[in-house]
Amino acid sequence: MMNTHARKLEKKTSQAVANVVTQKKETSSSFQLKDNRPQTIAQLKGINFDAGIGSGWHVHKGHVKYASNNSTRVNFKNRTSREIGFALENAIKANGLSATKTGSDFKACMTYIREHYK
Predict the structure, then answer these.
(1) Residue 21 pLDDT greater than 80, yes or no
(2) Rounded CA gap, 10 and 114, in Å?
């Protein structure tokens, strides 16, 4: 009789330990969604834009460009806002990006250029 009671107690204890292990596994294996938007990645890498967003038009380190498309890059050095605007318009036409001029990111970049490059 004592042996039977010890086996039942051992079985209950084993089940309790198994439940705790299962519960810990469930909480530690819960999945998390990753935010892979370019602007989020830029923020995580510590990239700060003067205007706009990384996945669209942005001003960064003396130039403006659309996302990672280097053929849209317009450098500011020794240019007035009018010259930058002209070069930017040519880049937009050459890359078929006229529709992007309506976005708030583009407008923010143009405002920045007008305010900082006379």
Answers:
(1) no
(2) 78
